[in-house]
Amino acid sequence: MNKVAFAFLSFSLVLSSQAATANCDLQISEIAAKHGHPSDRPSSPVLVGTLQAGDARRGAQGQIGPSTQDVYLYLNSGSYHSGWFQEAFALDLDCNLRDHGVLYAE
After folding, report:
1. Which residues face 104 on adjacent strands?
2. CA 103 to chain centre
């Protein structure tokens, strides 16, 4: 494969992965509103990276994973009355919810 074809293929793969992530960024707010914990403040989940198949993200009160496939990991902080929490959402590469749970809470 020549350098031009390789560069074009690499660029195309980067764009397609960014488009998939951007698509999930649009859907995560709706997913968080439907499946997230009640909060006194608006939900604002943030993409923190990709959780590889077989890995888990652990917190003091729970964990996300391990998953059988790579997933996008979003974290959301919220408060309820006088306490706070951090919850995680794992979305597959098609932006479907695969796992959800509270990692930290007070």
Report:
1. 86
2. 13
% of the chain beyond a pLDDT of 90: 66
Q: Residue 55: left (phi > 0), alpha (psi -120 to 50), or beta?
A: beta
pLDDT in tens, 71-84: 999 999 999 888 99
CA distances from 91 to 2, 31, 41, 83 (A): 36, 10, 23, 26
Helix (H, G, I), strand (E, B) or coil at 5: helix
Give dist(CA 79, CA 105) in Å, integer: 9
Give CA–CA dist 59/18, Å, rounded.
Answer: 28
Domain residue ranges of the chain, discontinuous segments joined by +: 11-105
